[in-house]
Design goal:
By secondary structure, the protein is an all-alpha fold. The protein has three helices and no strands.
Length: 113
């Protein structure tokens, strides 16, 4: 390899490192936002369905909708937490240099669930 090729290769490697760092920083910000979202979903799940208001006519539909909303909030919170954990593991494995995609499957097969 001549000097120009070596310089170009070094530049490309440095650019790749910078992109990986930016990607990691963005993922960490998304993880932080996910934690905040989970906290908000917990507030929704903790809110009382039946409030002690004598003038509030609670129909069966309203009770059913409130319960469904709480269920959805809880399920969404768990889904977000699971995704946060998998992203944290992916970041940590990249930092350790572990190649997690060392399988016989292709990209589509690994991603289909």
């Amino acid at each position: 390899m001549n000097g120009t090729n070596t310089m170009v290769l070094q530049y490309l490697l440095e650019s790749l490192k910078e992109l990986k760092m930016k990607s990691k920083e963005i993922k960490l910000k998304i993880i932080e936002a996910g934690h905040r979202a989970v906290e908000q979903l917990i507030k929704v799940a903790k809110e009382a369905i039946i409030k002690h208001d004598p003038e509030d006519d609670l129909s069966a539909d309203r009770l059913k909708n409130a319960a469904a909303t709480k269920k959805l909030a809880i399920f969404d919170a768990f889904e977000i937490l699971n995704r946060i954990e998998s992203e944290k593991e992916a970041i940590e494995s990249l930092e350790r240099g572990v190649n997690k995609t060392d399988t016989k499957q292709g990209f589509a097969e690994r991603r289909s669930k």
